[in-house]
Specification:
This protein has 17 helices and 13 strands. With about 400 residues, it is an alpha/beta fold. The chain has 2 domains: about 120 residues, 3-Layer(aba) Sandwich (Rossmann fold); about 270 residues, no CATH class. Strands 7-6-8-9-10-11-13-12 form an 8-stranded mixed beta sheet, sandwiched between helices. Strands 2-3-4-1-5 form a 5-stranded parallel beta sheet, with helices on one face. Strand 3, helix 5 and strand 4 form a beta-alpha-beta unit. Helix 5 packs parallel to helix 6 and helix 8 packs across helix 14. The longest helix is centred in the last third of the chain and has 18 residues. The protein is globular.
Length: about 400
């Protein structure tokens, strides 16, 4: 399988040169192992902690296990043996000045991060690798976001609108990108089953896997909407606390992104309900049963798919620089809404997402309301759409093709 360059590469190299340990987290199949093996081939030994016999060896006699696997070493799937972390801390403290001793990966956030904060605080850089951003898939991993560009916007790789929707259905996992002939429907079916069996079953909040799969589908149908937990719980016949626990499982395994409303003292009551997006737009399409680009583009999920693609592209681009994305939405009690706010250096970039490939000035109305409300903190805004037209939609608002994002 051809290697795809990732934006996170220079960040990982820098972290490994400065910290005794680097922890790389992210969803299953996002390319964590491939990335580390590519960057550190020939210099680091590799051990997966997923096989039961390896895990048992690590837990039975941790010190002997670490004696057998001396630094520099990659420990893959570290969430399977979090009990090893205090003993790694012991080794690091004995050689505190030596960077790049241990590289660890993990695809579950809750237990692993709790143990890391207890054992490796101040000793480890923690980075996140998501599925491919569009810029990585297009071979331009270090390209800037529109509001970061000092000169005139340089267009991305333009293509037909149908090709864009095909790419949304296919999603952004590296295995599918590297194997264009692979049946993406079969791949996602296998991914969901593997995810349910490996990750969800090991987390105590989930008892009935078939009911959890129904929850996944119901959540996908509500993607990019205000999430009413009471309605969702009623539709599935479970308690609200169960829905909250299941959401925490999805967030901990990097399957969803939760956008919360932006609060500021502007004298208007803003809604408190969050919006939920799937990390990967292909997963969203799979869970909602979409297999045809024309149905996806013209059906009731079109807006949610387009919005998911924009939100995930921005979040992945920032996360792959080693930056924690600060993203929100804005909605007033009267219903005026901006789909996405990106906080950057204390300022806010407002972004609206539209399915129409023909941008019109009326599409910028919410951004204009936001800019009037926040004035000094509001940066120029963008209306992102699936077409190929870039043009001004009024003062400090630009219509932007998705390919330029």
């Amino acid at each position: 399988m051809a290697y795809i360059s990732r934006s996170l590469e220079p960040v990982i190299r820098k972290a490994a040169a400065e910290f005794p340990a680097v922890v790389l987290t992210g969803p299953r199949q996002s390319g964590k192992t491939t990335l580390l093996k590519h960057l550190f081939a020939g210099r680091y030994s590799y051990v997966s902690l997923e096989p039961p016999d390896v895990r048992a060896s690590a837990l039975e006699d941790p010190r002997a296990f670490l004696d057998m696997h001396t630094p520099p070493v990659i420990f893959d799937e570290a969430q399977h043996a979090p009990e090893l972390l205090p003993y790694i801390k012991e080794r690091i403290d004995a050689r505190r000045g030596v960077p790049g001793q241990y590289l660890l990966t993990g695809s579950q956030n809750i237990l692993l991060m709790q143990r890391i904060s207890e054992s490796l605080a101040g000793r480890a850089a923690i980075l996140r690798l998501m599925p491919l951003s569009r810029r990585e898939a297009d071979g331009r991993p270090q390209s800037l976001l529109p509001w970061e560009r000092k000169s005139r916007l340089k267009p991305g790789a333009a293509g037909s609108i149908q090709d864009l929707w095909k790419s949304f259905l296919r999603g952004s996992y590296p295995e599918l990108a590297a194997n264009p002939q692979r049946d993406f429907g079969l791949w996602y079916s296998g991914y969901v089953q593997t995810y349910l069996e490996r990750d969800v079953r090991t987390m105590r909040q989930v008892g009935d896997l078939s009911q959890f799969q129904s929850f996944l589908q119901a959540l996908a149908a509500r993607s990019a909407q205000l999430l009413n937990l009471t309605d969702l719980a009623r539709d599935l016949g479970v308690a609200v606390n169960t829905i909250k626990a299941w959401l925490s499982v999805l967030e901990a395994t990097y399957q969803i992104l939760i956008l919360r409303p932006y609060f500021a003292n502007v004298g208007k009551r803003l809604v408190k309900t969050p919006k939920v997006y799937f990390t990967d737009v292909g997963m969203l399409c799979h869970l909602t049963g979409l297999k045809d680009p024309e149905h996806a583009a013209s059906g009731p999920m079109a807006g949610a798919i387009m919005e998911t693609a924009v939100v995930s592209e921005i979040v992945k681009t920032l996360a792959h620089r080693g930056v924690e994305p600060h993203v929100y939405f804005w909605r007033t009690s009267s219903g005026t809404e901006v789909d996405l706010l990106v906080e950057t250096e204390g300022n806010l970039v407002p972004i609206e997402v539209k399915v129409s490939a023909t941008p019109r000035p009326a599409m910028a109305s919410s951004i204009k309301s936001f800019r009037q409300e926040f004035d000094a903190r509001a940066m120029p805004g963008y209306v992102v759409h699936p077409g190929d037209v870039r043009l001004p939609l009024g003062s400090d608002v630009t219509a932007l093709p998705f390919s330029d994002l």
